[in-house]
Amino acid sequence: ETGATVQLLATVLPINATDKTLSWSSNDPSIATVDGIGNITAQGIGTAIIYVTTNDGGHTATATVTVTEPTTANGTCNGILTDISEPVGSGTITSRNDFLPAEDRFKAFDNKAIQGTFSKWLDAGGIPTSADPSWIQLALSEAKRVERIVITSANDDYGRDPMDFRLMASNGGAFTEVGSWNGETFAQRYQSRTFELNAPGSYSTYRLEITKNEDDVEMTQLAEIELLGCVPESTQIISLTSKFNSIHNDFQENEFSFSPNPVGENRIVTLHLPNNLTDTEVMVTIYSIEGKLVHSSKFWNANGVYNFELQLNRSLPKGIYLMDARNRGKDVYRKKIILK
């Protein structure tokens, strides 16, 4: 809601990068502003994109922030809605047609709806109609509630933009229409528009069906789809944070990782510390989503040993936590960890 705040966290990789300077910005300060350390303040109802860019190399990550009306007595979602398709790669994506490989269906959920990336999904399967719509579908591993859908227009021909479309949903059986819109247009390239569902609910499969594009042409396109669902505030923060965990991609052996995730009832975790950390002390800390420290350990990364076994307290309750790995209190790797 207006006035609410949340902080996004960005980690610059590799851990030994010499310049970790970041710049933050918002594409619409009337909706949400961001300061120099990632603190977001809601200014008005709507959707804004937050950008964080590295000074070294100009690597950029984004997060979509939606500001809603305050909670009401009937349980309307409060504050920031989050994209249920996060992280990238969640669920199974199918479509009527792909313009392979450069503009395939996966581009609709890759978080690259930014001017200059040219990332988009293009359906070249013919003029869409109500009987034969252009469609793209996301099947999740579990049912999740969606309140709104955000569609971002692509980079070129306006005539390919969705104009009439509907969102269908299913839990394994017949599809139900949860939202429909007609006569919609996109005035700009890479314009993100938010549409509120008529009949929101919790479903495991969502399918966007485009029944008409702007010029009734054989190609239909869009840059990005976001399915916004209501989750507890603490989970919202973790979801937004996860979008910034890899601003700079590095080789896998130079990443902090752990397994399994989710962690089983034995509460044993195997850590892999970055190979570019040698002869140095690494502090591993775990926090609850409320910010309470629940575990801390120190490891000495030396003699080619980069994998360690971590025994957590078996009494830790199920839930979502944040794990940090710090190199002498300076460089930080942050990961989400789930205890089941």
From TrEMBL:
Entry annotated with the keyword Methyltransferase: no
Domain of life: Bacteria
Domain F5/8 type C: 77-230
Keyword Signal part of the UniProt annotation: yes
InterPro entries for this protein: Big_2 (IPR003343), FA58C (IPR000421), Galactose-bd-like_sf (IPR008979), Invasin/intimin_cell_adhesion (IPR008964), Secre_tail (IPR026444)
One Pfam family recorded for the sequence: Big_2
Assigned keywords, A-Z: Signal
Protein name per the record: Por secretion system C-terminal sorting domain-containing protein
Species in which this protein is naturally found: Maribacter orientalis
